[in-house]
Amino acid sequence: MEWWKDAVIYQIYPRSFKDSTGNGFGDLRGVIEKLDYLESLGVDGLWLSPIFESPQKDNGYDISDYRKIDPRFGTNEDMYELIEKAHAKGMKIIMDLVANHSSDQHRWFQESKKSKDNPYRDYYIWKDAQADGSPPNNWGSIFSGGAWEWDETTEQYYLHYFLKEQPDLNWENPKLREEIYDLMRFWMAKGVDGWRMDVIGAISKDQSFPAYDSDEQYVVGENHSNGPRLHEFIQEMNREVLAPFNAMTVGEGNGSDIESAKLFTDPERNELNMIFTFTHMGVDERPTAQLGKWGMKPFDLVELKADLALWQTALNERFWNTLYFENHDQARVVSRWGNDTTYHHQSATAFATVLHGLKGTPFVYQGEEIGMVNSSFPIEDYDDVEIHNAYKDLVQERQLLSEADFMAAVETKGRDNARTPMQWDATANAGFTTGTPWLKVNPRFEEINVEKAVADKGSIFHYYQKLIALRHNEELFRTGEFELTNSEDPRLFTYTRTLGDEQLIIVANMSAENYQPLPLLSTEKATGELLISNYADTPAIDVISVLRPYEAAIYKVK
Ligand code: NOJ
């Protein structure tokens, strides 16, 4: 029933995964081609970022037909074949539900903007201008600027939390909600096993549309998520479609704190299985009203440990966590927080160890399992609309960041770091395409690629394979109670997972220097089994006295 509690899910960003046609754009036949590879990694499910028909203004997170596969990715038949072939290998398929907004090219919006009395008018959020013609309030777009767009024809503003080509859907309208449930039924009837839900925390809007109290022209803040009817809507969705199909669900919990996460994931409330939370990914951020995510500070391990520990403890009973460092919106962790040069292998595997040892469902993002790294491109080589909008706003127009500071932030955490094509081998374009890739390949593909990693038994790939197998074979990963140790240590990441008289001890030196002497790892100095480590000769727990740079291990003691 709760298969996802023992599972590791692999996220595919289809446009960057594998191109089977030579048009420079990844597609579903490319995914089908690589199913054997995914099976050999051992993952239990595949989450595909959106592949529905879309003008691709935000890489598919702007959908114009929810029931049709975008021709760039293939056909509906390709998708049905992928579902069947993944199932034959025991892998579940999770699709991306983008239901906070649609594309402005969706038929609903095309109708909605025709007239104020169009039957689809109320599928979106339309408001009159204020007396002086200005937008209804000072809500900002997450992709820079304001969240309201003026429409000349009907002389009203419509709301868009993201691009103006991504108008927000009006969940107050029961007809709209039924449309969403119905498209979910459509895909579930085809065999889809679950949903990742894009910005699901944003679907309910406070109908008084309260302005933020701020001197800034545009603000993105607490009014953008956790609206008054959010959980009512999710419970309705659960009744209508999730429960009948026994769907696995993971919501993108933007703006979620512990209390709202509990509301989403308490099994007794019948909402979602788990949510992606964001606070741990903010440990290198100094967000300000003006700079948003582009305000940076150095990575702080103590903060990361404290944040992860907080969620581990808070969602322990009944609830369930997601575990991730990477996805299509985040950078490569080995570059962002680790060491992608001298200790590339060691730091990639150390971050994997401390994440996969936690309680929750781990998500591996394509390329993470071979230690793919961040890129450094000139601004014109980036594709991401978020990067370009922020560059225009922060560097060119308001001049709040120097070009150098902005580019440094982009190279650390810009979304395109995760979106460069998957590196399959050392041939042209890393074997991703025979054509011209839609986004440049990372220049380190000859050194970091799947073919090489699979051939090398000591590679990051084989480490992930082993970590994933451990999840399946060792129950303590699901059941063990979490306890953080050495919490204030800025270099050491250690914790235990305990159930009865059995315990996992997770240890990692998250620095590039030897860590010596080691604090006592096991209270009883028990002998334990070394389940996994990222150095070939890591000593047993009762004799280990030093951790080498980024050395990480998991012991089981009794
Ligand atoms: C979150 C998605 O992960 C991101 O890629 C997208 O741009 C926004 N939601 C808008 O859909």
UniProtKB/TrEMBL annotation:
<feature type="domain" description="Glycosyl hydrolase family 13 catalytic">
    <location>
        <begin position="11"/>
        <end position="419"/>
    </location>
</feature>
<dbReference type="Pfam" id="PF00128">
    <property type="entry name" value="Alpha-amylase"/>
</dbReference>
<comment type="similarity">
    <text>Belongs to the glycosyl hydrolase 13 family.</text>
</comment>
<dbReference type="InterPro" id="IPR017853">
    <property type="entry name" value="GH"/>
</dbReference>
<dbReference type="GO" id="GO:0004556">
    <property type="term" value="F:alpha-amylase activity"/>
</dbReference>
<dbReference type="InterPro" id="IPR045857">
    <property type="entry name" value="O16G_dom_2"/>
</dbReference>
<dbReference type="GO" id="GO:0004574">
    <property type="term" value="F:oligo-1,6-glucosidase activity"/>
</dbReference>
<dbReference type="GO" id="GO:0009313">
    <property type="term" value="P:oligosaccharide catabolic process"/>
</dbReference>
<dbReference type="InterPro" id="IPR006047">
    <property type="entry name" value="GH13_cat_dom"/>
</dbReference>
<protein>
    <recommendedName>
        <fullName>oligo-1,6-glucosidase</fullName>
        <ecNumber>3.2.1.10</ecNumber>
    </recommendedName>
</protein>
<keyword id="KW-0326">Glycosidase</keyword>
<dbReference type="InterPro" id="IPR013780">
    <property type="entry name" value="Glyco_hydro_b"/>
</dbReference>
<keyword id="KW-0378">Hydrolase</keyword>
